[in-house]
Amino acid sequence: MTIDLDTPYPLTDAQVAQFRRDGFIKLKQVFDAETLRRYGAEITRLTIALNTQTVPLAERSTYDRAFLQVMNLWEQGGAAREFVFGRRLAGIAAALLQVDGVRLYHDQSLYKEPGGGITPAHADQYYWPVDSDRTVTAWVPLQAVPQDMGPLAFFAGSQHVEFGRDLGISDESERAITAAMEAHGFPVIDAPFDLGEVSFHLGWTFHRAGPNRSRRPRSVMTVIYMDRDMRLKAPENHMQQSDRERWCPGAEVGAVIDTPSNPVLFERAA
């Protein structure tokens, strides 16, 4: 019997408190091997088919060596849409954010090739034109991620630090943010992921990943959730302007981001 995508996950009060303190959490047995095999095969197929990267790995920038990425696989329908719209992940997101419901911001597959480089330290919300910190990313490995494959690593408690929030993913962000985290004494939690283990991190939690030194690709699916009542803010950089146009089409500054591209994926029962 596989884990249904809509079956609630038994999250505890202690886990919610841990997430609030650290800005991230890793949860075991969110999915089983059969579920990951079924949906992972289609997600990986779409990622490879839709990816537009043609430059050899050795000739790419630091950012482009980090992974191949394809956004909004849910728009392809089928198994990818089923996965992204699953209430199990969305319910965890709502509980961790302590909100009544969550919307989709967008999804993103991340395929770190064998020999792929580091994912530089950064905070995701640098890219997002949203007016609160009630955002969370579910990072779902489609296989186990041993240390040599480059698991996601987190600077615990860093969601409260404003330094570095104006830096996109780059060599500069890796140097400056890592130095700032060390100066503040935030521990970096860098450990393998078991099969079925999923992490959730806030939009302002700083994180990074090592290179893929293995001979296998590291396939990951991510789903980014935001508070159901999230409002669009005026973009503060060109990346936020691009995100507004791409992921929140038709949303108005100051209004709830209620568009066909941002459906509500989970609401608590009244």
What does this 3D model show about the protein?
Its cofactor is Fe(2+). It holds the Pfam family PhyH. Keywords: Dioxygenase, Oxidoreductase. InterPro entries: Phytyl_CoA_dOase-like. Helix content is 28%, strand content 22%. With 270 residues, the chain is of the alpha+beta class. The protein has one domain: q2cbj1_9rhob like domain (Jelly Rolls, Sandwich), CATH 2.60.120.620. Strands 1, 2, 3, 5, 8, 10 and 11 form a seven-stranded antiparallel beta sheet that branches. A four-stranded antiparallel beta sheet has the order 4-9-6-7.
Write the layout of secondary structure elements.
Blueprint: H1 13-22, E1 24-27, H2 33-50, H3 62-66, E2 68-71, H4 78-84, H5 87-97, E3 101-112, E4 119-122, E5 135-141, E6 152-155, H6 171-184, E7 188-189, E8 198-202, E9 207-209, E10 218-227, H7 238-247, E11 264-267
Antiparallel strand pairs: 1-8, 2-3, 3-10, 3-11, 4-9, 5-8, 5-10, 6-7, 6-9
Keywords: Dioxygenase, Oxidoreductase
InterPro entries: Phytyl_CoA_dOase-like (IPR008775)
Organism: Luteimonas salinilitoris
Task: Write a brief structural summary.
The chain contains 7 helices and 11 strands.
**Oligomeric status of the shown chains?**
single chain
Q: CATH topology, what is it called?
A: Jelly Rolls
Low-confidence stretches: none
Kindly report how far apart the N and C termini lie: 30 Å
Which superfamily, in CATH terms, is the homologous superfamily? q2cbj1_9rhob like domain
Annotation, overall tally of beta strands: 11
Instruction: Give the CATH class.
Output: Mainly Beta
* Beta-strand content: 15-25%
Order of helices and strands: HEHHEHHEEEEHEEEEHE
Outline type: globular
Proper CATH architecture: Sandwich
Secondary-structure-derived class: alpha+beta
Helix content: 25-40%
Overall number of domains: 1
Number of separate helices = 7
